[in-house]
Design goal:
With 387 residues, the chain is mostly beta strands. Helix content is 9%, strand content 59%. The protein contains four helices and 18 strands. A hairpin with a 2-residue loop joins strand 2 and strand 3. The longest helix is centred in the first third of the chain and has 13 residues.
């Protein structure tokens, strides 16, 4: 009886009772699309960073500051989708947002000291290295899963998804250079350069008769993305292997996108009323408008599940742009329809709790029950209505 129950559970996985993302990067595996006819609505969102509470990340960086010794990152992955599923097909419309911020420890320390005005480290040289890649888009996606007929103990399904993307927002930014402190309020900037491509360019510091204002029109973007996936079940051992790659091929072509290049140096600095150094970027800013081909960064998910009675053990990892996000978890299937899971993300140390049913699912994760102090949190939710 136990063996039969386990087999039913894992065959259920391959027929996608709940085809949704359970990692950090909102990766949906098209191989998990089932054969039944359903309407669905999904919401997947995760945000985290290495340095401060998320509520302070875009603010003043108040509270506890605990950066990583090497590269520090900020991550956002969010997707909302609704549509229909039938005979292994899925057709949906969705909204998505992806962003990754990378900053060296020197850069993170300088930002924290600047925002909190806690004083710069005396005699320190800060090597600046910062990169932001982010975009928001809406679109439509058509996906299909296929059962492979193989003379093998493994039951294998593969899937393919194709998306049309309408770009809505984009920001690509890099900062490189060097800062040398003079005292706790002042420093010299040498060879510091910031480049930014951003649809929301601020021209408030330029004269009203500037020719740039005549060129400023609403940027637009359009593109595509392709997702692939595989799910393999070994009924004899109740093991499941999953592979999914989102944005394996993808790009958004932006037209008339503002681009700025700014040099920060000691010739443009001034001091506020309290003696803190500031810089006037408009004195050394060059602005152009360009057509940009934004290549989407692929996102990978690998997962292995194994059952012991009604318990399910899980090990998985997500990957993108040089960063791994490993996770482990354990679940318990109360009935064929109900299951509960606990999982741990080892990159941001979030603990997640999930409940799954044939008709709905809900997952919450955070590294701190006090959300005001949390450096990472996520939500996955959805409903399925069978016709």
């Amino acid at each position: 009886m136990i063996k039969t129950s386990c087999r039913l559970i894992f065959v259920g996985l391959i027929t996608a009772q709940a085809c949704y993302a359970d990692g950090l990067l909102a990766i949906n595996n098209p191989a998990k699309i089932g054969q039944t006819t359903k309407a669905y609505a999904d919401l997947e969102a995760f945000a985290g960073n290495d340095q401060v509470a998320m509520r302070e990340y875009a603010g003043n960086w108040a509270g506890q500051y605990s950066p990583s010794p090497g590269s520090n990152i900020g991550l956002l992955a969010a997707r909302a989708e609704t549509g229909v599923q039938w005979h292994g097909y899925r057709l949906g419309i969705y909204q998505r947002a992806d962003a990754l911020v990378e900053a060296s420890r020197d850069t993170a320390d300088l930002v924290q000291q600047y925002k909190r005005q806690s004083g710069y480290s005396l005699g320190r040289t800060y090597a600046l290295n910062y990169r932001l890649k982010g975009f928001e888009a809406s679109g439509a996606r058509l996906s299909k899963s296929f059962q492979l007929d193989m003379a093998s103990p493994w039951q294998i399904r593969v899937g393919l998804g194709l998306s049309y993307l309408k770009g809505q927002r984009v920001k690509l930014e890099t900062i490189n250079g060097q800062i040398v402190t003079i005292n706790t309020k002042d420093f010299n900037a040498t060879a510091n350069r910031q480049t930014t491509s951003d649809e929301s360019l601020d021209l408030s510091g330029f004269p009203k008769n500037s020719p740039l204002l005549a060129q400023l029109t609403a940027p637009s973007g359009a593109g595509y993305a392709a997702d692939v996936g595989l799910v393999a079940v070994h009924p004899g051992s109740n093991a499941v292997f999953e592979l999914a790659i989102a944005d394996l091929f993808g790009q958004i072509d932006w037209s008339h996108l503002p681009n700025t290049s700014t040099n920060y140096n000691s010739a443009t600095k001034y001091y506020d009323a309290n003696g803190w150094v500031n810089f006037n970027p408009n004195l050394s800013k060059a602005i152009t408008f360009q057509n940009l081909n934004q290549k989407l960064d692929p996102k990978l998910r690998l997962a292995v599940n194994y059952s012991l009675g009604n318990f399910e053990l899980k090990a998985a990892t997500d990957y993108t742009q040089g960063y791994w996000f490993p996770q482990t978890g354990v679940g318990y299937h109360i009935t064929p329809q109900w299951a509960f899971f606990v999982d741990l993300d080892w990159r941001f140390n979030t603990l997640g709790l999930s409940v799954q049913h044939d008709w709905f699912y809900l997952s919450l994760k955070t590294d701190n029950l006090n959300l005001n102090a949390a450096k990472a949190y996520g939500l996955t939710a959805g409903v399925l209505a069978q016709f």
